[in-house]
Specification:
The chain has 96 residues and is an all-alpha fold. The chain is globular and about 30 Å long. It starts with a helix and ends with a helix. It has a single domain, classed as Serine Threonine Protein Phosphatase 5, Tetratricopeptide repeat, CATH 1.25.40.10. The protein is built from 5 helices and no strands. Helix 1 packs antiparallel against helix 2 (13-31), helix 3 (36-51) packs antiparallel against helix 4 (55-73) and helix 3 runs parallel beside helix 5 (78-95). InterPro entries: TPR-like_helical_dom_sf. It holds the Pfam family TPR_12. It comes from Herbinix luporum. This is Tetratricopeptide repeat protein.
């Protein structure tokens, strides 16, 4: 995941997305789609979809991440709060 994070930080979003997508598939098959580590990758996939111009898909995926994190981690968990904050930012940027 470090390479994907580096690419993300370098704003090489398409390359980062490809790596995060591979990581997501592996984690989903081993840990399941509701595991916090899988959801962490899904969070970045949602952000990258949004940043790559697929804004509606990014918002939809972030909404799913938020709902899953509420169920698994609870509404007061830092990761859940980060998801809703990011989702709100996406909505704001999508309306401008």
């Amino acid at each position: 995941m470090n390479i994907a994070s580096c690419l993300y930080n370098m704003r090489r979003y398409k390359e980062a997305y490809a790596i995060y997508d591979e990581i997501y598939e592996v984690r989903k098959s081993i840990l399941g789609n509701m595991h916090p580590d899988t959801l962490a990758v899904e969070f970045y996939l949602a952000r990258l979809k949004f940043m790559n111009g697929k804004k509606d898909e990014g918002i939809e995926l972030m909404s799913e991440v938020y709902k899953k994190r509420c169920l698994i981690l609870g509404k007061d968990h830092l990761d859940t709060k980060r998801s809703i904050k990011t989702l709100e930012e996406m909505h704001r940027k999508n309306t401008n």
